[in-house]
Amino acid sequence: MAVVSRAGGGKAIAHDVEKGQRVPTVGTVARLASGLGLRAGWLAYGLGEPPGQGSQSHCEGMGTRLQAVRLAQGLTKTALGRLAALTAPSITQIEAGGQSGIDVVEALAQALGISPAWLAFNEGPQVLPSRRRGRLPVQSSAPLS
Known about the structure:
Elements: H1 2-6, H2 11-18, H3 26-36, H4 40-45, H5 62-72, H6 77-84, H7 88-95, H8 102-112, H9 116-121
């Protein structure tokens, strides 16, 4: 509970998050990651390396990053909202520096084709490397006739 206290939360927050009853905000994840010595991108999304190497995780600038990518892609707030199943006022609030849940940030990142760890915490590359598509051929252990 000492980590939760350092993160500015109480027992109720820790309990609710652990039981899946509450989605933490990016600010809460950043504070928890700092308290645990982890990178926030790894804690929230499983991206990057777990050790924080002494750096403090933060979510400052998330709104600026969101707005810059949205504008670079030529999207209005309404268009991005449609892609991410959000409203334009929600996007306005985030771009103005408002907090958001890690699930909302992930939806925005997916809609924009960028890394949620970069968007939320400015960690890692802006664009995730694409995964190889297709499958490897199945190797049969049966002898060929």
